Amino acid sequence: MPELPEVETIVRDLRQDIVGRTIMAVRFLNRTIWRRGAPAKRLLIGARISSLERRGKNILIILSNGRVMIVHLKMTGRLTYQGSSDQMRKHTHLVIDLDFGQIRFNDTRRFGYLDLVRPDEIDRLDYLSVLGPDALFISREDFVMMVRSKKRIIKSLLLDQSILAGMGNIYSDEALFVAGINPRRVSASLSRERAGRLHQAMIAVLNKAIGARGSSMNDYVDARGEKGSYQDQRLVYGREGQPCKKCGRKIKRETIGSRSSHFCASCQR
DNA sequence: GACAACCTGACC
DNA sequence: GGTCAGGTTGTC
User: Fold this and answer.
1) Is the CB of A57 under 7 A from strand C?
2) pTM reported for the whole predicted model
3) pLDDT digits 0-9 by tens, A184-229
4) pLDDT of the residue at A1
C-alpha cells in the first residue's frame, strides 16, 4: 500500500485539484468499505471541500459543513480525481461527483476503508488517537529517545504506527540500509549516534520518495492516476539477490515480524 | 512475538 | 497448485 510518501503525494495533488469544489452527487457502489456503515448522502451533497490533511497514512478531507471524510488506502486503495467521463475501473467502490470532475475510491483487495465523522469526533477516534508522532516531523531528540527506550526489533518498531506514524515496509528497509543498521537489531542497543543516523536516513528517504512522487511497485498511483518513480532508485527493497549498491554483495531477503525485509548483511550491522 | 484474518490478482 | 504483495487488527 501507499506509505507516507504516497499518501502525502495524493494529499498534495488533491489540495490542488479539489479544494473549493462542491459535492453534487454521491454514488455508493459498495457499502462495506465504510467503517461504520455508509453515511446519509445529505451529509455530503452540497458541501464544499475546505482542505485536506494527512495523519500518518490516513487522508482527511475536511468539508465546509464541518464533517471530515477519512480515507485509509491500506494495500491497494486508490483515491483519484478525474473527468466524469473517464472509464470506470473494476473495484471502484465510491464515486463523488463534484461541480467539475469526480473523486473515486477504488480498492482491489477491499482492505481500505472510509469514515465520515463529526468535527467533535475527530480527536476521539480510536484509530487516529492511537497514532504516534509523524515520521516526517518527529525531532531527532524525540526519535533517539523513543528508539533507545524500547526493546524492540528495530524493523518492527519502525512499522508500529502507534510509535511512529507513516513508515511502511519499503521505506523502513530503505532507511535502515542508508543508516547501515541491521533490521533485526534491538532498538535499545543502538547508540545515540546510530539512532540519530537512522532518524536522518528516515527523513532523507521519505523526502526523496515524496520528491519522486512515491513508489509504484504494484498498484499505487497518485490522485491523477500516474505512477511514482521511487521504485527506480530504491536501494534494497525488492532487490533480493542483486548486488548491494555499497559493497556489491548480494542483498538478502528474510522475514522479520512476518514482513519481508531486504538488507545487506555486510553493510548493515 | 508469531500468526491468522481481511481480499484479489500476478506470477512461478 | 502454491506464493507473494506499500497494512492493520485481533488472538494466542
Assistant:
1) yes
2) 0.98
3) 999 999 999 999 999 999 999 999 999 999 999 989 999 999 999 9
4) 66
- Tell me which H or E stretch contains A69: strand A68-72
Nearest nucleotide by C1' position to the A151 CA atom: B1
Instruction: Report, as an integer, the average pLDDT of A150-154.
Output: 96
Return the residue matching grid coordinates 553493510: A267
Taking the CA of residue A247 and the C1' sugar atom of nucleotide C12, their distance in angstroms comes to 42
Examine the residue annotation and report whether A74 is marked as an active-site residue of this protein: no
The per-residue DSSP string of A4-36 comes to HHHHHHHHHHHHHHHTT-BEEEEEES-GGGBTT
Instruction: From the candidates A57, A78, A104, A185, give the one annotated as an active-site residue.
Output: A57
Q: CA nearest A135: which of A237, A70, A188, A204?
A: A204
Rounded-to-integer distance, Cα A80 and Cα A196, Å: 37
Domains of chain A: 4-124 (3.20.190.10), 140-263 (1.10.8.50)
Protein residue closest via CA to C1' of B10: A218
